[in-house]
Amino acid sequence: MKRLNNKKTKSYSLLKNQWQMLVMMAPFFILFFFLLIVPIISSLVLSFSSYDMLNPARFTGIDNYLRMFVSDDVFPSVLKNTIVIVLITGPAGFMLAFLLAWLVNEFTPTVRTFLSFLFYAPSLAGNAFFVWKVIFSGDSYGYLNSFLLNLGLVTEPITWLNDETWLMPIVILVQLWQSMGISFLSNIAGLQNVSRDLYEAGSIDGIRNRWQELWYITLPSMQHMILFSVVMQIQSSFTVSTITTELAGYPSVGYSVDTIVSHMTDVGSVRFEMGYASAIAAILFLLMAGTRIILGKFLKILGR
Length: 304
Prior knowledge:
Elements: H1 2-17, H2 19-46, E1 49-50, E2 58-59, H3 63-71, H4 75-104, H5 109-124, H6 131-135, H7 143-151, H8 164-192, H9 196-205, H10 210-221, H11 223-238, H12 242-248, H13 260-270, H14 274-299
Antiparallel strand pairs: 1-2
């Protein structure tokens, strides 16, 4: 009872002394609630119904989830593709972004600014990945085919974007190229905020090389920024859709690179099966939330 009274007292004190701050934050929280929380709850409710946007929603229980894992022949393929893309482009993208940020951080401010813009540019350019369609074009005018033909390494053009053997590596390459910008920028920001005093104190305490500095000082000092960077990289990997659709079409050859998001878009926007699309979205949300929890626990070991 005493603890409850203390909490009420603290809440009242917060409202009384910092009401101006709460008033200024209110527009954000209102928009956050109506534009994010309400749609998530609505989608979760719809996932237990059959709804085609023309007729009223009809409650169907867990039929959409049973359909997903039992009778939908496409979902296992897109789930596998999504997991492969996440497992490769998530960790690889973050490690490449962090390594680049670590190296770029050693340059002078002018050079660092130029290189930061250079590495962040693909994220700013939006649909710049279309250049890869020209590079991997299946005729002799495609840059890669033209290069290989001129060298005599192949005798006829390779249809890169219509071959299951090459599609997944190409999608992974393009996703890595386009998704590293945000992780790179957040890592640069984190490195810039590590106090120089910590390195001086570390040298006194026995740290002798850059790798020890990295593990015992740099990584623990920017743990929250690393978590943000990792989450953004993983989120980008989980939501790959536009790249696969534009490069390989939908459906791709043998559903070899189609992802959960592209399948969900097809189900919701083409077939108008909004209940089933909401169920797919719920599974994707659970996958992303579970990954976030695992990564949060893993990052706690930094510096130990």
